[in-house]
Amino acid sequence: MEKYKKTLIYLVFVLPALAVYLLIIAVPIISSIGLSFTDYNIYKNTAIWTGFVNYIKILTDPVFWFSMRNNLIVILVSVFGQIPLGFGLAYLIYRKLVKRSGFFQAMVFLPTVISTIIIGILWSKMISPIGVIPGIIQNITNNPNYSFTIMNSKQLAMIPIGFVLLWMYTGTYLIIFMANLQNIDPNIIEAAQIDGATEGQIFRRIIVPQLYGVIALTAILAISGSLRSFDLLFAMTGGGPAYYTNLLSIYMYKYAFVNYDYGVGSAVSTVMVMLSIILVIIVRFVQRKLAASGA
Amino acid sequence: MYEDNLVIRKERKSLSNVLAYSVFILFTILTLYPLIWLFYSSFKPQLEIIRDAFALPKDPTFGNYIQAVIKGKLDKYAINSIIYTFVSTGLVIFLSMMASFAFAKIKNKATPFIYNSFLMGLLITIQAILIPLFISMTRIGLRDTRTGIILIYVAINLPLAIYLGTEYVKAIPDSLIESAQIDGASYFTVFFRIILPMCKPVMVTMLIFTALACWNEFMLALVFTSSDASRSLPVGIYSFSGPLATEYGMQFAALVIGMTPMILLYAIFHKQITRGFAAQGAIKG
Known about the structure:
The complex is a heterodimer of chains A (295) and B (285). With 295 residues, chain A is mainly α. Helix content of chain A is 75%, strand content 0%. In chain B, helix 3 crosses helix 13 and helix 7 runs antiparallel to helix 10.
């Protein structure tokens, strides 16, 4: 009887959160997989099982693969740009190479608190003819006829985007690495210095190995964040010109909410979920390898 | 020999100092310049904006702001955003504190399974819920309503809050709860009288994360709202800031209106915000 009552109380505390979570997140994710095998029509509310037709449709679409390429660029910028840069900046502060570090830290971090959609619109204005970027480049290159046309290049359009991504998110990683650097016992570093270790040796042999776990974790955060990223590019370019800056999320949005093809849209989102699971497993695997070789 | 070494070290140190300062000053300029440019441009009349992007306003005007409110209906959207942020944040904190308490302090075999399914939500690709949720919300009439948006915001913010809460409640000693129970306190009394007052710091972290997330959220609000009565501020700002829109001054004013609350929040709570983001790095997924 006592045990029964305890379970009841447990349920009273857990159920409200669980119910909302199941209804809004868990059930839709599962039904999304189901929808991806149908030709669901929202007006008639009918769905016919179509097997892998939707998947074949997207996997044979060059735009899908180009969006995938762009998503991979975003992931690369996050993992090999934002994380090392954030780590580097945190290390500079940690080694006390700058004064007023609180101010500098706030300056790097500030873009993180501003709505992504606002940042996207702001930068789209900055690079447009009414913005300052074309003018600045005109001055630097001494070419008064310069106009910002890099976005019209299929191959290069993602470069300015990569820059804005660095601008926006480096601060998050700076803060995470800062907190973890401060947890390292300063006595270890002092002891190494007394033994004659150089700055570089301390960094490679003591600091980095202690942070393998955090590096892997930030990589997971960066990858899953990059895969679902939507706001910045949607606001900055809308995926355009043409599909040059499309991401999988924008590709999916256009299929589902512009063309009303919910089956294909669901297929894209299912691919995205699979992709994020695979990438997280890879990072986990690399992390284990590193931890094993480091020990 | 030793002294030589010291001199070299000192020189190296000052060189790396210079490098470090240049990097941080560069970042500071890159952060501040666009924001300052946006701010003063929002006071320029249309002609001045087009004529010279760099120039300060010659004839500063509040017209852009007035237009953003009257024509852009930003006041309506701002009220919606305020409602979404306050109600969702309140619900997230309360629901996740309840669940955290149960996960951490009431023994049950189901806990590992349920808790881990919440943690999976941290890595979910949010796009995966868009279409099915859009269909079901349309069918039951919750699409384009405030209730619908609040429900969604609560759900997507629960995983992080529950993670933070559970880890925090776990650290509260069991003996405290047991002694209260010996004195005859029920689980509810323990929750309201002991757990909640002791969890203020983690509740502040939850508040900051959830409030930032709700105020800034765009994609879901874009898909799930279509009328002025339920549109949020980011969707409203986006609706007249597309690449083809030409009322630049009004757009600049709208961007300033949209970002100011968050910058103020950061200025006031920067310590807590920093600590909260640092805590994110402690998630052991």
